[in-house]
Design brief:
The structure holds two protein chains of two kinds. Chain A is built from eight helices and nine strands. Chain A is α/β, with parallel strands linked by helices. In chain A, the strands form two sheets. In chain A, strands 5-6-7-3-8-9 form a six-stranded mixed beta sheet, with helices on both faces. A three-stranded antiparallel beta sheet of chain A has the order 2-1-4. In chain A, helix 3 runs parallel beside helix 5, helix 4 crosses helix 5 and helix 7 runs antiparallel to helix 8. The radius of gyration of chain A is 20 Å and the shape is globular. Chain B is mostly helical. Chain B is built from 15 helices and one strand, in the order H-E-H-H-H-H-H-H-H-H-H-H-H-H-H-H. At the A-B interface, helix 2, strand 4, strand 5 and helix 3 of A face helix 1, strand 1, helix 3 and helix 7 of B. Strand 4 of chain A pairs antiparallel with strand 1 of chain B.
Chain lengths: 245, 287
Protein backbone atom coordinates (compact mmCIF):
# COMPACT_ATOMS: atom_id res chain seq x y z
CA UNK A 1 0.00 0.00 0.00
CA UNK A 2 1.61 3.27 -1.02
CA UNK A 3 1.94 5.81 1.72
CA UNK A 4 0.43 9.06 0.60
CA UNK A 5 1.36 10.74 3.86
CA UNK A 6 5.02 10.39 2.91
CA UNK A 7 6.10 14.01 2.54
CA UNK A 8 8.97 12.98 0.29
CA UNK A 9 6.80 11.28 -2.31
CA UNK A 10 6.92 12.68 -5.83
CA UNK A 11 4.87 10.10 -7.67
CA UNK A 12 2.07 8.03 -6.22
CA UNK A 13 0.41 5.37 -8.33
CA UNK A 14 -2.52 3.90 -6.48
CA UNK A 15 -4.42 0.77 -7.60
CA UNK A 16 -4.12 1.80 -11.22
CA UNK A 17 -5.54 -0.32 -14.00
CA UNK A 18 -5.54 0.43 -17.68
CA UNK A 19 -7.36 -1.45 -20.36
CA UNK A 20 -7.23 -0.82 -24.06
CA UNK A 21 -10.12 -1.62 -26.30
CA UNK A 22 -9.15 -2.37 -29.85
CA UNK A 23 -11.94 -1.85 -32.31
CA UNK A 24 -11.81 -4.15 -35.30
CA UNK A 25 -14.36 -2.32 -37.36
CA UNK A 26 -14.09 1.23 -38.53
CA UNK A 27 -17.12 1.79 -40.70
CA UNK A 28 -20.78 0.90 -40.92
CA UNK A 29 -20.01 -1.61 -43.63
CA UNK A 30 -17.36 -3.40 -41.61
CA UNK A 31 -19.54 -3.43 -38.51
CA UNK A 32 -22.43 -4.85 -40.52
CA UNK A 33 -20.32 -7.58 -42.09
CA UNK A 34 -18.78 -8.46 -38.72
CA UNK A 35 -22.21 -8.71 -37.13
CA UNK A 36 -23.45 -11.03 -39.84
CA UNK A 37 -20.36 -13.22 -39.65
CA UNK A 38 -20.60 -13.09 -35.85
CA UNK A 39 -17.07 -11.88 -35.50
CA UNK A 40 -15.94 -9.95 -32.47
CA UNK A 41 -16.28 -6.20 -32.89
CA UNK A 42 -13.53 -5.43 -30.44
CA UNK A 43 -11.02 -7.05 -28.15
CA UNK A 44 -9.85 -5.62 -24.91
CA UNK A 45 -6.39 -5.87 -23.55
CA UNK A 46 -5.38 -5.25 -19.96
CA UNK A 47 -2.17 -3.28 -20.03
CA UNK A 48 -1.91 -2.73 -16.28
CA UNK A 49 -3.54 -4.40 -13.28
CA UNK A 50 -3.83 -2.73 -9.89
CA UNK A 51 -0.44 -1.11 -9.91
CA UNK A 52 0.61 0.52 -6.66
CA UNK A 53 3.93 2.35 -6.54
CA UNK A 54 5.29 5.28 -4.58
CA UNK A 55 8.40 7.01 -5.83
CA UNK A 56 10.13 9.39 -3.48
CA UNK A 57 11.97 12.62 -4.07
CA UNK A 58 15.40 12.16 -5.61
CA UNK A 59 14.80 8.52 -6.36
CA UNK A 60 15.73 6.95 -9.68
CA UNK A 61 13.64 4.03 -10.70
CA UNK A 62 14.11 1.68 -13.60
CA UNK A 63 10.96 0.21 -15.09
CA UNK A 64 11.90 -3.19 -16.40
CA UNK A 65 10.07 -5.77 -18.41
CA UNK A 66 9.79 -7.23 -21.87
CA UNK A 67 7.83 -5.65 -24.69
CA UNK A 68 4.17 -5.44 -23.86
CA UNK A 69 4.69 -5.65 -20.11
CA UNK A 70 3.14 -2.22 -19.59
CA UNK A 71 6.23 -0.06 -18.98
CA UNK A 72 5.44 2.59 -21.54
CA UNK A 73 1.78 2.66 -20.55
CA UNK A 74 2.79 3.32 -16.96
CA UNK A 75 5.12 6.07 -18.07
CA UNK A 76 2.37 7.65 -20.14
CA UNK A 77 0.02 7.52 -17.17
CA UNK A 78 2.57 9.35 -15.06
CA UNK A 79 3.12 11.97 -17.76
CA UNK A 80 -0.63 12.49 -18.16
CA UNK A 81 -0.83 11.48 -21.81
CA UNK A 82 -3.07 8.59 -20.78
CA UNK A 83 -5.59 8.52 -17.96
CA UNK A 84 -6.10 5.50 -15.72
CA UNK A 85 -9.39 3.57 -16.02
CA UNK A 86 -9.43 3.03 -12.27
CA UNK A 87 -7.25 4.11 -9.39
CA UNK A 88 -5.31 7.33 -9.45
CA UNK A 89 -1.95 8.74 -10.30
CA UNK A 90 -0.59 11.70 -8.36
CA UNK A 91 2.52 13.70 -9.05
CA UNK A 92 4.10 16.57 -7.17
CA UNK A 93 6.06 19.15 -9.11
CA UNK A 94 6.81 19.64 -12.76
CA UNK A 95 6.91 16.52 -14.89
CA UNK A 96 8.55 16.27 -18.28
CA UNK A 97 9.21 13.34 -20.47
CA UNK A 98 12.18 12.49 -22.58
CA UNK A 99 9.68 10.32 -24.32
CA UNK A 100 10.60 9.62 -27.90
CA UNK A 101 12.55 12.79 -28.25
CA UNK A 102 11.75 14.99 -31.17
CA UNK A 103 8.00 14.35 -31.15
CA UNK A 104 7.37 18.08 -31.39
CA UNK A 105 10.04 18.82 -33.96
CA UNK A 106 8.95 20.23 -37.26
CA UNK A 107 11.23 19.47 -40.21
CA UNK A 108 10.54 22.77 -41.96
CA UNK A 109 11.62 24.91 -39.04
CA UNK A 110 15.19 25.80 -38.22
CA UNK A 111 17.01 24.27 -35.28
CA UNK A 112 16.62 27.49 -33.35
CA UNK A 113 12.86 27.65 -33.90
CA UNK A 114 12.52 24.02 -32.95
CA UNK A 115 14.43 24.56 -29.72
CA UNK A 116 12.00 27.28 -28.70
CA UNK A 117 8.92 25.36 -29.78
CA UNK A 118 9.92 22.15 -28.05
CA UNK A 119 11.07 23.80 -24.88
CA UNK A 120 7.67 25.49 -24.73
CA UNK A 121 5.92 22.19 -25.39
CA UNK A 122 7.85 20.68 -22.49
CA UNK A 123 6.61 23.50 -20.30
CA UNK A 124 9.43 26.04 -20.25
CA UNK A 125 8.74 29.76 -20.15
CA UNK A 126 10.18 32.29 -22.58
CA UNK A 127 12.63 33.50 -19.96
CA UNK A 128 13.87 30.00 -19.19
CA UNK A 129 14.47 29.19 -22.84
CA UNK A 130 16.30 32.46 -23.41
CA UNK A 131 18.54 31.72 -20.44
CA UNK A 132 19.27 28.13 -21.46
CA UNK A 133 19.44 28.54 -25.20
CA UNK A 134 23.24 28.72 -25.50
CA UNK A 135 23.66 25.84 -23.10
CA UNK A 136 21.27 23.71 -25.16
CA UNK A 137 23.06 24.46 -28.42
CA UNK A 138 26.43 23.78 -26.86
CA UNK A 139 25.26 20.46 -25.45
CA UNK A 140 23.82 19.40 -28.79
CA UNK A 141 27.10 20.15 -30.63
CA UNK A 142 25.04 21.52 -33.52
CA UNK A 143 27.05 24.73 -33.65
CA UNK A 144 26.58 26.85 -36.75
CA UNK A 145 23.81 24.61 -38.14
CA UNK A 146 21.38 25.89 -35.54
CA UNK A 147 19.76 28.18 -38.12
CA UNK A 148 19.47 25.45 -40.74
CA UNK A 149 16.16 23.71 -41.27
CA UNK A 150 15.98 20.53 -39.26
CA UNK A 151 15.10 18.42 -42.32
CA UNK A 152 18.66 18.90 -43.54
CA UNK A 153 20.10 17.52 -40.31
CA UNK A 154 21.58 14.05 -40.10
CA UNK A 155 19.61 11.73 -37.86
CA UNK A 156 22.33 12.01 -35.24
CA UNK A 157 22.16 15.80 -35.21
CA UNK A 158 18.39 15.68 -34.97
CA UNK A 159 18.39 13.37 -32.00
CA UNK A 160 21.16 15.28 -30.25
CA UNK A 161 19.29 18.55 -30.51
CA UNK A 162 16.02 17.01 -29.38
CA UNK A 163 17.71 15.38 -26.42
CA UNK A 164 19.54 18.57 -25.50
CA UNK A 165 16.27 20.48 -25.33
CA UNK A 166 14.54 17.85 -23.25
CA UNK A 167 17.32 17.44 -20.74
CA UNK A 168 17.60 21.15 -20.14
CA UNK A 169 13.97 21.46 -19.11
CA UNK A 170 13.50 22.53 -15.53
CA UNK A 171 11.64 19.69 -13.91
CA UNK A 172 11.22 17.86 -10.65
CA UNK A 173 10.30 14.56 -12.23
CA UNK A 174 11.93 13.32 -15.40
CA UNK A 175 10.53 10.43 -17.39
CA UNK A 176 13.06 8.77 -19.67
CA UNK A 177 11.95 6.33 -22.34
CA UNK A 178 14.47 4.57 -24.55
CA UNK A 179 16.78 7.47 -25.00
CA UNK A 180 19.92 5.88 -23.71
CA UNK A 181 20.38 4.56 -27.22
CA UNK A 182 20.72 8.08 -28.54
CA UNK A 183 23.58 9.14 -30.77
CA UNK A 184 27.10 7.78 -30.93
CA UNK A 185 29.10 6.53 -27.97
CA UNK A 186 30.67 9.83 -26.87
CA UNK A 187 27.27 11.50 -26.96
CA UNK A 188 25.67 8.63 -25.04
CA UNK A 189 28.30 9.03 -22.38
CA UNK A 190 27.62 12.73 -22.22
CA UNK A 191 23.91 12.05 -21.81
CA UNK A 192 24.50 9.61 -19.01
CA UNK A 193 26.76 12.11 -17.28
CA UNK A 194 24.05 14.72 -17.58
CA UNK A 195 21.46 12.34 -16.18
CA UNK A 196 23.75 11.57 -13.22
CA UNK A 197 24.23 15.27 -12.66
CA UNK A 198 20.46 15.73 -12.52
CA UNK A 199 20.22 12.80 -10.11
CA UNK A 200 22.71 14.51 -7.84
CA UNK A 201 20.58 17.64 -7.94
CA UNK A 202 17.84 15.53 -6.38
CA UNK A 203 15.59 15.10 -9.44
CA UNK A 204 13.25 12.17 -9.46
CA UNK A 205 13.66 9.88 -12.42
CA UNK A 206 11.76 7.05 -14.00
CA UNK A 207 13.73 5.28 -16.71
CA UNK A 208 12.62 2.74 -19.27
CA UNK A 209 15.30 1.09 -21.35
CA UNK A 210 16.19 -2.21 -22.88
CA UNK A 211 19.84 -1.54 -22.18
CA UNK A 212 19.59 -3.43 -18.92
CA UNK A 213 23.12 -3.07 -17.58
CA UNK A 214 23.25 0.66 -18.11
CA UNK A 215 19.87 1.23 -16.57
CA UNK A 216 20.67 -0.97 -13.58
CA UNK A 217 23.82 1.04 -12.95
CA UNK A 218 21.96 4.30 -13.33
CA UNK A 219 19.08 3.54 -10.95
CA UNK A 220 19.14 2.11 -7.47
CA UNK A 221 15.61 0.81 -7.58
CA UNK A 222 14.10 -1.46 -10.19
CA UNK A 223 10.47 -2.32 -10.73
CA UNK A 224 9.84 -5.39 -12.80
CA UNK A 225 6.60 -5.60 -14.72
CA UNK A 226 5.22 -8.72 -16.29
CA UNK A 227 1.96 -8.64 -18.24
CA UNK A 228 0.77 -5.60 -16.40
CA UNK A 229 1.63 -6.77 -12.89
CA UNK A 230 4.42 -5.62 -10.63
CA UNK A 231 6.35 -8.79 -9.93
CA UNK A 232 9.35 -7.27 -8.23
CA UNK A 233 10.17 -3.95 -6.60
CA UNK A 234 13.61 -3.54 -5.10
CA UNK A 235 17.29 -3.36 -5.97
CA UNK A 236 17.74 -2.68 -9.67
CA UNK A 237 20.46 -5.31 -10.22
CA UNK A 238 18.28 -7.94 -8.61
CA UNK A 239 15.39 -6.87 -10.82
CA UNK A 240 17.53 -7.22 -13.92
CA UNK A 241 18.75 -10.62 -12.77
CA UNK A 242 15.16 -11.68 -12.28
CA UNK A 243 14.16 -10.41 -15.69
CA UNK A 244 16.98 -12.35 -17.32
CA UNK A 245 16.18 -15.55 -15.50
CA UNK B 1 -6.99 15.26 7.65
CA UNK B 2 -3.24 15.04 7.74
CA UNK B 3 -3.30 12.83 4.69
CA UNK B 4 -5.32 15.47 2.87
CA UNK B 5 -3.05 18.34 3.74
CA UNK B 6 -0.03 16.45 2.46
CA UNK B 7 -1.74 15.65 -0.84
CA UNK B 8 -2.64 19.26 -1.46
CA UNK B 9 0.35 19.98 -3.67
CA UNK B 10 -0.15 16.77 -5.62
CA UNK B 11 -1.77 16.95 -9.00
CA UNK B 12 -3.38 14.40 -11.23
CA UNK B 13 -1.30 14.33 -14.39
CA UNK B 14 -3.37 14.76 -17.50
CA UNK B 15 -5.87 17.11 -15.92
CA UNK B 16 -6.05 20.62 -17.27
CA UNK B 17 -8.30 23.60 -16.89
CA UNK B 18 -9.03 23.47 -20.62
CA UNK B 19 -9.23 26.81 -22.37
CA UNK B 20 -8.04 28.61 -19.25
CA UNK B 21 -4.78 26.68 -19.38
CA UNK B 22 -4.35 27.51 -23.05
CA UNK B 23 -4.16 31.19 -22.17
CA UNK B 24 -1.96 30.48 -19.18
CA UNK B 25 0.54 29.01 -21.63
CA UNK B 26 0.53 31.92 -24.04
CA UNK B 27 4.19 31.44 -24.88
CA UNK B 28 3.53 27.98 -26.29
CA UNK B 29 0.38 29.21 -28.02
CA UNK B 30 2.25 32.03 -29.71
CA UNK B 31 4.96 29.63 -30.90
CA UNK B 32 2.40 27.18 -32.25
CA UNK B 33 0.68 29.98 -34.16
CA UNK B 34 4.02 31.16 -35.50
CA UNK B 35 4.90 27.64 -36.57
CA UNK B 36 1.62 27.28 -38.46
CA UNK B 37 2.06 30.63 -40.14
CA UNK B 38 5.64 29.84 -41.15
CA UNK B 39 5.05 26.31 -42.29
CA UNK B 40 1.83 26.64 -44.24
CA UNK B 41 3.21 27.94 -47.51
CA UNK B 42 6.80 26.72 -47.12
CA UNK B 43 8.24 25.77 -50.46
CA UNK B 44 5.74 27.68 -52.57
CA UNK B 45 6.93 30.60 -54.66
CA UNK B 46 4.02 32.88 -53.84
CA UNK B 47 4.07 31.94 -50.16
CA UNK B 48 1.55 33.81 -48.10
CA UNK B 49 0.32 35.63 -51.18
CA UNK B 50 -1.70 32.48 -51.78
CA UNK B 51 -4.03 33.41 -48.98
CA UNK B 52 -4.84 36.59 -50.93
CA UNK B 53 -4.96 34.96 -54.33
CA UNK B 54 -7.78 32.71 -53.16
CA UNK B 55 -10.21 35.36 -51.90
CA UNK B 56 -9.36 37.57 -54.86
CA UNK B 57 -10.22 34.83 -57.35
CA UNK B 58 -13.37 34.03 -55.40
CA UNK B 59 -14.30 37.69 -55.45
CA UNK B 60 -13.74 38.07 -59.19
CA UNK B 61 -15.84 34.99 -59.99
CA UNK B 62 -18.73 36.11 -57.81
CA UNK B 63 -18.46 39.68 -59.00
CA UNK B 64 -18.95 38.72 -62.61
CA UNK B 65 -21.44 35.92 -62.03
CA UNK B 66 -23.68 37.76 -59.60
CA UNK B 67 -22.79 41.43 -59.88
CA UNK B 68 -22.62 41.66 -63.65
CA UNK B 69 -24.62 38.75 -65.04
CA UNK B 70 -27.32 38.65 -62.39
CA UNK B 71 -27.28 42.47 -62.21
CA UNK B 72 -26.78 42.85 -58.46
CA UNK B 73 -24.49 45.77 -59.27
CA UNK B 74 -27.50 47.75 -60.43
CA UNK B 75 -29.64 46.80 -57.45
CA UNK B 76 -27.40 48.11 -54.71
CA UNK B 77 -24.67 50.68 -54.18
CA UNK B 78 -21.12 49.38 -54.13
CA UNK B 79 -22.02 45.72 -54.52
CA UNK B 80 -18.29 44.77 -54.68
CA UNK B 81 -17.80 46.14 -51.17
CA UNK B 82 -20.93 44.36 -50.00
CA UNK B 83 -19.66 41.15 -51.52
CA UNK B 84 -16.12 41.36 -50.18
CA UNK B 85 -17.02 42.43 -46.65
CA UNK B 86 -19.27 39.40 -46.29
CA UNK B 87 -16.93 37.04 -48.06
CA UNK B 88 -14.03 37.66 -45.70
CA UNK B 89 -16.25 36.87 -42.69
CA UNK B 90 -17.43 33.57 -44.10
CA UNK B 91 -13.90 32.69 -45.21
CA UNK B 92 -12.34 33.26 -41.81
CA UNK B 93 -15.09 31.23 -40.21
CA UNK B 94 -14.70 28.34 -42.63
CA UNK B 95 -10.94 28.33 -42.38
CA UNK B 96 -10.87 28.41 -38.58
CA UNK B 97 -13.57 25.77 -38.35
CA UNK B 98 -12.03 23.39 -40.88
CA UNK B 99 -8.48 23.68 -39.54
CA UNK B 100 -9.68 23.45 -35.94
CA UNK B 101 -11.46 20.21 -36.80
CA UNK B 102 -8.34 18.73 -38.35
CA UNK B 103 -5.95 20.11 -35.73
CA UNK B 104 -6.19 17.26 -33.22
CA UNK B 105 -5.56 14.53 -35.77
CA UNK B 106 -2.82 16.57 -37.45
CA UNK B 107 -0.99 16.97 -34.16
CA UNK B 108 -1.54 13.35 -33.20
CA UNK B 109 2.16 12.55 -32.95
CA UNK B 110 2.57 15.18 -30.27
CA UNK B 111 -0.65 14.44 -28.42
CA UNK B 112 0.30 10.78 -28.11
CA UNK B 113 3.61 11.51 -26.50
CA UNK B 114 3.52 14.68 -24.48
CA UNK B 115 0.79 16.03 -22.30
CA UNK B 116 -0.29 19.60 -22.91
CA UNK B 117 -3.68 21.30 -22.90
CA UNK B 118 -5.02 19.94 -26.18
CA UNK B 119 -7.45 22.80 -26.63
CA UNK B 120 -4.27 24.58 -27.68
CA UNK B 121 -4.57 23.22 -31.22
CA UNK B 122 -8.10 24.36 -32.19
CA UNK B 123 -7.41 27.72 -30.54
CA UNK B 124 -4.19 28.08 -32.53
CA UNK B 125 -6.11 27.25 -35.73
CA UNK B 126 -8.58 30.04 -35.05
CA UNK B 127 -5.80 32.53 -34.35
CA UNK B 128 -3.97 31.56 -37.56
CA UNK B 129 -7.18 32.05 -39.56
CA UNK B 130 -7.68 35.39 -37.86
CA UNK B 131 -4.12 36.51 -38.63
CA UNK B 132 -4.85 35.68 -42.25
CA UNK B 133 -8.11 37.60 -42.11
CA UNK B 134 -6.80 40.91 -40.72
CA UNK B 135 -5.01 42.09 -43.90
CA UNK B 136 -8.18 41.28 -45.87
CA UNK B 137 -10.13 43.44 -43.48
CA UNK B 138 -7.55 46.17 -43.92
CA UNK B 139 -7.92 46.04 -47.71
CA UNK B 140 -11.69 46.35 -47.33
CA UNK B 141 -11.34 49.33 -45.00
CA UNK B 142 -8.97 51.07 -47.42
CA UNK B 143 -11.41 50.59 -50.29
CA UNK B 144 -14.24 51.87 -48.10
CA UNK B 145 -12.22 54.95 -47.20
CA UNK B 146 -11.58 55.67 -50.86
CA UNK B 147 -15.29 55.68 -51.68
CA UNK B 148 -16.18 57.75 -48.61
CA UNK B 149 -16.63 55.65 -45.50
CA UNK B 150 -18.16 57.41 -42.50
CA UNK B 151 -19.13 54.83 -39.89
CA UNK B 152 -20.85 55.63 -36.63
CA UNK B 153 -19.39 54.34 -33.34
CA UNK B 154 -22.20 51.81 -32.99
CA UNK B 155 -21.42 50.40 -36.44
CA UNK B 156 -17.76 50.02 -35.49
CA UNK B 157 -18.81 48.31 -32.28
CA UNK B 158 -20.90 45.98 -34.44
CA UNK B 159 -17.82 45.19 -36.52
CA UNK B 160 -15.94 44.21 -33.38
CA UNK B 161 -18.88 42.13 -32.16
CA UNK B 162 -19.02 40.36 -35.51
CA UNK B 163 -15.39 39.35 -35.14
CA UNK B 164 -15.91 38.13 -31.57
CA UNK B 165 -18.94 36.08 -32.62
CA UNK B 166 -16.97 34.40 -35.40
CA UNK B 167 -13.93 33.68 -33.23
CA UNK B 168 -15.96 32.14 -30.39
CA UNK B 169 -18.20 30.18 -32.72
CA UNK B 170 -15.39 28.81 -34.88
CA UNK B 171 -13.31 27.84 -31.83
CA UNK B 172 -16.25 26.12 -30.17
CA UNK B 173 -17.21 24.20 -33.31
CA UNK B 174 -13.54 23.42 -34.01
CA UNK B 175 -13.19 21.84 -30.57
CA UNK B 176 -16.46 19.96 -30.92
CA UNK B 177 -15.78 18.52 -34.36
CA UNK B 178 -12.04 18.18 -33.73
CA UNK B 179 -12.69 15.96 -30.70
CA UNK B 180 -15.19 13.83 -32.61
CA UNK B 181 -12.82 13.64 -35.58
CA UNK B 182 -10.36 11.56 -33.51
CA UNK B 183 -12.70 8.57 -33.52
CA UNK B 184 -14.86 9.40 -36.51
CA UNK B 185 -13.04 10.90 -39.43
CA UNK B 186 -16.44 11.52 -40.99
CA UNK B 187 -16.35 14.72 -39.00
CA UNK B 188 -13.92 16.28 -41.47
CA UNK B 189 -16.30 15.63 -44.34
CA UNK B 190 -19.26 16.97 -42.43
CA UNK B 191 -17.33 20.17 -41.86
CA UNK B 192 -16.57 20.53 -45.58
CA UNK B 193 -20.26 20.15 -46.23
CA UNK B 194 -21.11 22.79 -43.64
CA UNK B 195 -18.58 25.17 -45.19
CA UNK B 196 -20.29 24.78 -48.53
CA UNK B 197 -23.68 25.56 -47.07
CA UNK B 198 -22.56 28.42 -44.81
CA UNK B 199 -21.53 30.59 -47.75
CA UNK B 200 -25.00 30.38 -49.23
CA UNK B 201 -26.98 30.28 -45.99
CA UNK B 202 -25.88 33.81 -45.14
CA UNK B 203 -26.43 37.00 -47.14
CA UNK B 204 -22.94 37.09 -48.58
CA UNK B 205 -23.57 36.93 -52.30
CA UNK B 206 -27.13 38.30 -52.32
CA UNK B 207 -28.96 40.80 -50.09
CA UNK B 208 -30.97 39.49 -47.15
CA UNK B 209 -34.08 41.19 -48.58
CA UNK B 210 -34.37 38.49 -51.25
CA UNK B 211 -34.83 35.97 -48.45
CA UNK B 212 -37.35 38.24 -46.75
CA UNK B 213 -39.37 38.51 -49.95
CA UNK B 214 -39.38 34.79 -50.66
CA UNK B 215 -39.85 32.87 -47.41
CA UNK B 216 -42.40 32.91 -44.58
CA UNK B 217 -41.59 35.07 -41.58
CA UNK B 218 -40.69 32.22 -39.20
CA UNK B 219 -38.10 30.96 -41.66
CA UNK B 220 -36.70 34.45 -42.04
CA UNK B 221 -36.34 34.61 -38.25
CA UNK B 222 -34.46 31.31 -38.24
CA UNK B 223 -32.28 32.59 -41.06
CA UNK B 224 -31.49 35.80 -39.19
CA UNK B 225 -30.68 33.95 -35.94
CA UNK B 226 -27.75 32.08 -37.53
CA UNK B 227 -24.72 33.66 -35.80
CA UNK B 228 -22.74 33.64 -39.05
CA UNK B 229 -25.54 35.57 -40.76
CA UNK B 230 -25.55 38.06 -37.92
CA UNK B 231 -21.76 38.48 -38.14
CA UNK B 232 -22.01 39.01 -41.90
CA UNK B 233 -24.73 41.62 -41.43
CA UNK B 234 -22.69 43.32 -38.72
CA UNK B 235 -19.86 43.58 -41.22
CA UNK B 236 -22.20 44.96 -43.86
CA UNK B 237 -23.46 47.46 -41.33
CA UNK B 238 -19.94 48.47 -40.32
CA UNK B 239 -18.20 48.51 -43.69
CA UNK B 240 -20.56 48.61 -46.61
CA UNK B 241 -23.58 50.46 -45.21
CA UNK B 242 -21.69 53.67 -44.23
CA UNK B 243 -20.48 53.98 -47.83
CA UNK B 244 -24.03 53.97 -49.25
CA UNK B 245 -26.81 56.56 -49.11
CA UNK B 246 -28.50 54.41 -46.45
CA UNK B 247 -31.59 53.59 -48.47
CA UNK B 248 -30.97 49.85 -48.54
CA UNK B 249 -32.45 48.33 -45.37
CA UNK B 250 -30.38 46.29 -42.94
CA UNK B 251 -32.17 43.57 -40.93
CA UNK B 252 -34.22 45.13 -38.12
CA UNK B 253 -33.00 44.97 -34.49
CA UNK B 254 -29.48 44.13 -35.62
CA UNK B 255 -27.86 44.92 -32.28
CA UNK B 256 -30.37 42.76 -30.44
CA UNK B 257 -29.67 39.93 -32.83
CA UNK B 258 -25.96 40.50 -32.31
CA UNK B 259 -26.38 40.08 -28.56
CA UNK B 260 -28.31 36.87 -29.14
CA UNK B 261 -25.72 35.59 -31.59
CA UNK B 262 -22.98 36.36 -29.09
CA UNK B 263 -24.91 34.35 -26.51
CA UNK B 264 -25.26 31.42 -28.94
CA UNK B 265 -21.55 31.54 -29.73
CA UNK B 266 -20.66 31.41 -26.04
CA UNK B 267 -22.98 28.44 -25.56
CA UNK B 268 -21.38 26.69 -28.55
CA UNK B 269 -17.92 27.40 -27.12
CA UNK B 270 -18.90 25.94 -23.74
CA UNK B 271 -20.50 22.95 -25.42
CA UNK B 272 -17.37 22.43 -27.50
CA UNK B 273 -15.24 22.59 -24.38
CA UNK B 274 -17.53 20.15 -22.57
CA UNK B 275 -17.51 17.56 -25.34
CA UNK B 276 -13.78 18.05 -25.81
CA UNK B 277 -13.12 17.29 -22.14
CA UNK B 278 -15.34 14.24 -22.28
CA UNK B 279 -13.48 12.82 -25.24
CA UNK B 280 -9.91 13.98 -24.65
CA UNK B 281 -9.13 11.13 -22.24
CA UNK B 282 -9.20 8.82 -25.23
CA UNK B 283 -7.25 10.97 -27.67
CA UNK B 284 -3.85 9.43 -26.95
CA UNK B 285 -5.06 5.88 -27.46
CA UNK B 286 -7.41 6.48 -30.38
CA UNK B 287 -5.20 8.61 -32.58
Amino acid sequence: MPRISDPEARIVVRDVSKRFVLRHTHSFKETFVALIKRKKLSTSFDALHDIGITIGEGESVALLGFNGSGKSTLLKLISGVLRPDSGEVLTRGRVAGLIEVGAGFHPDLSGRENVYLNAAILGMTRKEVNERFDEIVEFSEIGEFIDTEVKHYSSGMFVRLAFAVAIHTTVDIMLVDEILSVGDEPFQKKCLDKIRELQQQGKTMVVVSHDLDTVADLCQRGILLRQGHVVFDGDSHEAVAMLRR
Amino acid sequence: MSAQSSTSDFAHPGESAGLVDVFRRRFLLSLLVRKEVQVRYRGSVLGWLWSYVKPTAQFIVFFFALGVFLRLNDQMDFYPIYLFSGLIVVNVFNEAFANGTKSIVDNGALIKKIFLPREMFPVASTIVAFVNFLPQLLVTVVVCLIVGWAPEPLQLLGLLMGMIIIVLLATGLGMLFGAINVSFRDSQNVVELIALIVTWASPVLYPWTTVRDNVPDWLLQVYLTNPVTVAVELFHSGLWFPTTDGSFPLPPDLMLRAALALGISIVVLLLGQLVFRRLEGRFAQDL
